[in-house]
Amino acid sequence: MRIAIIGFGTAGEGRLHAYRTVAAGRVVAVLDPSPERRARALRLDPGVVTYATLAELLAAQPVDAVDICAPPNRHVELEREALTAGLHVICEKPVAVRTDEALDLINLARERGRLLYPAHNYGFSPMMRVLTGAVTGGRLGGPLRARFQIARDSHARGVPGWQPDWRRDVAVAQGGIMLDHGTHCAYMATQLFGEAPRTVSCLAQWADGDAASGMDLAARLNLEFNGGGTCEIDLSWVSGTRSNRYLLSGPGGTADVHDGVAEVRTAHGVERTDLAPPSRDQTHQEWFGGMFADFAGLVAAGTGWDRPMREVVTTTALIEAAYRSAGRGGEPVVPAGFSAAQAR
Ligand SMILES: NC(=O)c1ccc[n+]([C@@H]2O[C@H](COP(=O)([O-])OP(=O)(O)OC[C@H]3O[C@@H](n4cnc5c(N)ncnc54)[C@H](O)[C@@H]3O)[C@@H](O)[C@H]2O)c1
């Protein structure tokens, strides 16, 4: 598959390296409006052709898919343009910010017979393998309780060739840590509980103490599931430390994944595994092979596309509901659903 990377910053550069490890995809083009970033792409891979706009790329270069690693405020327009041009699309999180946009995108993808695939890379992490292994076959039993704790001393910074602090500019970032890291927690919870939450409640700490800023620096989300399970998600860019912890418990035992160490306790004993910690490489290149194999396998099969496209909608709806709840002082909000009627 011939791939164009769109947005050659931290994530895009990580992708260029990661594509070298997969057989089914080859990067032939890189798009970035920044001349500095285009020059960097050519230094790293003189074989790629660089472009400043998607229109130029589409006019000049045949590609099968685009991998969108541009800043969040550009995702929807780039996805639309690429799908309309008949390309498969992988898009970094957030794939969309509003549920109606997410539904429009998957409807467009279906009309064009192309796959819209979320770069939900934590789903392919060693942490998720342990957690999924602990819940499969009912090992922990149910209802399940979960607690995710994501602590950071700051938001990540972007590359110097563009706007390194775009994550604090709501016009570009479209939100704060809930949209940035909360998105990963949202699809992880939905995958582990096997369903989207029934309600979402959220309290947030806003930049300058002002919800109107739209920039959440820390948040606590509570998800309630139809099956009786609950998931609490603590996110912070202002905690002064850096760690990821995922705790799951059920009547049959517990799973605790804390940075590089995973421990699953059940009646059969304790399994301890050392994992590569999730917080070292910002783009997590080592998780890419599994994610791309999933994408390429779905494209080749031409079926099974409902799973990733549904996840685009459920993830967007969950985070949208969290912002709505935080804006209403933590009142529970029912996330917009994914129904056959909404998605043609
Ligand atoms: N899944 C993950 O683990 C992960 C990790 C890092 C970043 N990301 C995501 O990747 C995206 C980019 O983040 P980043 O950290 O690489 O940011 P960055 O600032 O390092 O890079 C952004 C790049 O996009 C370019 N750009 C700006 N406007 C553009 C446009 N209209 N079209 C194409 N390119 C444009 C900039 O010139 C810059 O090179 C974000 O959506 C972020 O959430 C995901």
TrEMBL record:
InterPro entries: Gfo/Idh/MocA-like_OxRdtase_N (IPR000683), Gfo/Idh/MocA_oxidoreduct (IPR051317), GFO_IDH_MocA-like_dom (IPR055170), NAD(P)-bd_dom_sf (IPR036291). GO terms for molecular function: nucleotide binding. Residues 1-119 form the Gfo/Idh/MocA-like oxidoreductase N-terminal domain. Residues 134-255 form the GFO/IDH/MocA-like oxidoreductase domain. This is Dehydrogenase. It comes from Actinoplanes awajinensis subsp. mycoplanecinus. The lineage of its organism: Bacteria, Bacillati, Actinomycetota, Actinomycetes, Micromonosporales.
